Amino acid sequence: PNLAKKIAGAPKAELHIHIEGSLEPEVIFNLAKRNGVKLSYESIEALKRAYEFTDLQSFLDIYYAGASVLLTEEDFYTMTAAYVDRALADNVVHTEIFFDPQTHTERGVAISTAVAGIERALAEGEQRGLTSKLILCFLRHLSEADALATYEAALPLFDTYAHRLIGVGLDSSERGHPPSKFERVFAKARARGLKLVAHAGEEGPPAYIHEALDVLKVDRVDHGVRSIEDPALVARLADSRVALTVCPLSNIKLRVFDDMKQHTLKQLLAQGVAVTVNSDDPAYFGGYVNANYFATVEALDLTEQEVYTILRNGFEASFVSPIERQALI
Ligand code: ES4
Ligand code: ZN
């Protein structure tokens, strides 16, 4: 309880949050009503009852259904403003947020509409003590051509929103969609000087983490928890200090581990891997950043020193410059 209090009060960086995964059930229903979008769940309670996931895909099906209520700039603002409130309540002082443009362009919503709404809420957050960056993620279950078209369509936004939109990522269904499928679009983003991240080793094998590093040349690995199965990879991650953005509650809800006591975060940390703690899709997985810390500390008996290392890793692995970083802590 004492350590929990210290964690709650500590300034934190969050490096792995899908903004569409911050849509609380109540907000989904409000936006559906506002936009006349028909949901296949008749009530908030019915929707919540569907949050019984068996794997990543069973979650993604519901996550994309939830995101279908987002149509206007105001909707993206509403969603992001709610997340900003939650982040500030957890003493998050810096956040690096993912969004999935292809989820929205598919429904006729322009990328610029999504970014404008997200940006307006993040600019307000800056005034309240939350700095932030935005990362555009490609959906890996879609084709490389689709990712390339999305990247080209977003190019003007990387200029207009250069202060915020600083990188690209890779998410959605991992199995059968290796990082190498997106080699060319990541090469283009790299040539432009964008930061690069990819989900790898969440459900996929350690080989996908090697690929993310070798082929995509990512700056961070999202999840990466299956690296533990490959000792040489763990050593490589530790030596390179390429960080893992671990999301403990997500891993339990999506059955990556049977329960929190089985989580490998503590072992990875002990082997020198730059582990961070993050919320992933907090509206779906049972909590925001602090809840992720509390559940992990409790199940794995993390020491105050270990928690301090994780907190510091969050800032060190962030994409702000060293001097900006110092100002946050
Ligand atoms: C995601 Cl937990 C997770 N994994 C992969 N893709 C995602 N998109 C949103 N949440
Ligand atoms: Zn994720």
TrEMBL record:
GO biological process, one term: nucleotide metabolic process
Organism: Trinickia dabaoshanensis
InterPro entries linked: A_deaminase_dom, ADE, Ado/ade_deaminase, Metal_Hydrolase
Record site feature (Important for catalytic activity), residues: H223
Cofactor: record remark: Binds 1 zinc ion per subunit.
Function, as annotated: Catalyzes the hydrolytic deamination of adenine to hypoxanthine. Plays an important role in the purine salvage pathway and in nitrogen catabolism.
Protein residues bound to Zn(2+): H16, H18, H199, D280
EC identifiers of the protein: 3.5.4.2
GO cellular component: cytosol
Domain Adenosine deaminase, residue spans: 11-329
Alphabetized Pfam families for the sequence: A_deaminase
Signal peptide stretch: none
Top EC class for this record: hydrolase
Binding site for substrate: D281
UniProt similarity note: Belongs to the metallo-dependent hydrolases superfamily. Adenosine and AMP deaminases family. Adenine deaminase type 2 subfamily.
Name of the protein this chain belongs to: Adenine deaminase
Active site residues according to the UniProt entry: E202
GO MF annotation list: adenine deaminase activity; zinc ion binding
HAMAP family: Adenine_deaminase (MF_01962)
